[in-house]
Amino acid sequence: MSGKRQPQNPVIGSWQCPEGGTAVVRQASKRGRHFYTQCDCCGVNMGTGAARQTKIWREAEFQAGADVFKPSNVSDEGQGEALPAAREAPQSEPQGEPVGERWRPGEEEEEPQAKPAASRAPWVALGVGVVALAVGVLNG
Ligand SMILES: [Zn+2]
Question: Of 21, 39, 45, 138, which residue is least crowded by CB atoms under 10 Å?
Answer without folding.
Answer: 138
